[in-house]
Amino acid sequence: LDLSNCSLQSVPPGLAEAAAAIVLDLTENPLTALPNASFLGFVHLQSLAVPLPLECPGGSDAWQDVTVDGSSRLCQGQRNPCNTSMELAWPCPENSVCAPDGPGLIQCLCKNPFHGYKCLREGTFPMLLFGGILGTATVSLSLLLWGTQRRKAKMP
């Protein structure tokens, strides 16, 4: 994806739609900052060219090779932060596994059959119970409102 010399002053909000990009060029733009969250989901990104004043997203530890070429900085070979000794800095909760989520970013995915907050619930989500309670509450509230508000409806 070539976004070089597009007069970008910030990372475009629609960039998230290009998360499958392998090569991205942002050189020759008056960018002031590269928020790490801008590259959330960019797990396939292997080559990123940014203007020289900016650092590579995730820092130089998130890339295998960072080189300076003229007026640009080239970040190549995105590292998997889950496979390094730095994993202790991002502890995933018990019953979950670390997965890369972009340069220097991780996500914690619950192992089967765990789910919920911090992967503490075991089994499957109780869909029948949830749907039954939600349906009963909806029907009850609808009948109550129909019964109390029908006198205000105008007759033809």
From TrEMBL:
<feature type="transmembrane region" description="Helical">
    <location>
        <begin position="125"/>
        <end position="146"/>
    </location>
</feature>
<dbReference type="InterPro" id="IPR042350">
    <property type="entry name" value="ATRAID"/>
</dbReference>
<feature type="domain" description="EGF-like">
    <location>
        <begin position="108"/>
        <end position="119"/>
    </location>
</feature>
<dbReference type="InterPro" id="IPR000742">
    <property type="entry name" value="EGF"/>
</dbReference>
<protein>
    <submittedName>
        <fullName>ARAID factor</fullName>
    </submittedName>
</protein>
<dbReference type="InterPro" id="IPR032675">
    <property type="entry name" value="LRR_dom_sf"/>
</dbReference>
<keyword id="KW-0812">Transmembrane</keyword>
<dbReference type="GO" id="GO:0045669">
    <property type="term" value="P:positive regulation of osteoblast differentiation"/>
</dbReference>
<keyword id="KW-0472">Membrane</keyword>
<keyword id="KW-1133">Transmembrane helix</keyword>
